[in-house]
Model the fold of this input.
Amino acid sequence: MTKSYSLKVANARLGGFPRLLLRWKASIYKLLYKEMAIFVGLYVSLSITYRFALNDPQKRTFEKIAMYCHQYSDLIPVSFLLGFYVSIIYARWWNQYLSLPWPDRLASLIGCVVHGADDRGRLIRRTMVRYLNLSAVLVMRGVSTLVYKRFPTMTHVIDAGFMTIAEWKEYETLESAHSKFWVPVNWFCNLAGEARQEGRIRDDFAFKSLMEKIQNQKDTQASNPRLNDLNRSEHDKQF
Done:
């Protein structure tokens, strides 16, 4: 899980950067110390074996094997493979960032095109924005550890006000091998259709813009690489 040290860097004084390098939580040392320990153990065992357990002819044989391996190690383009790997990891991370759901623009559009100063109009606008946030929560529960800890069950989602009990019952009746984040999007579209029929969305152009924005929002959420991995794992469990 990514942990940010931006505030520590902003407030750093003399020796602040070395202290950041010595941090253990979310550090490269914590990630690789087991592999590093295995590597050091193997290296030390080979070194001790070469120096104390082998006789002179065996040492010459060991040296020839080491030289042979070193000769053919140049045939492997390690720098190219490492650069290729880093570019793939960075592209995946950037795609995850771009697929984060941001409801701000769509919420602003809802406030502009869904009219009505009465209680019904305010309820429609609030419910549409709530459906947006509910869809985002369902997506982030599958890809973020922090969000999953905040909402470990659907009961926590209901208690937080993102979903009503009636909506939860309808949500649970739908069977799907994949994430059902699209269900609140369908509710959003149905509610927008009701608002159009009631004249709260005053023209087809505004209704079309709203539908295009919500579709783009759903496509952005569905393109999350980690969500795709989760869907594939759930599909494999089903079959």
Summary: Residues 28-53 form the longest helix (26 residues). The two ends are 30 Å apart (CA to CA).
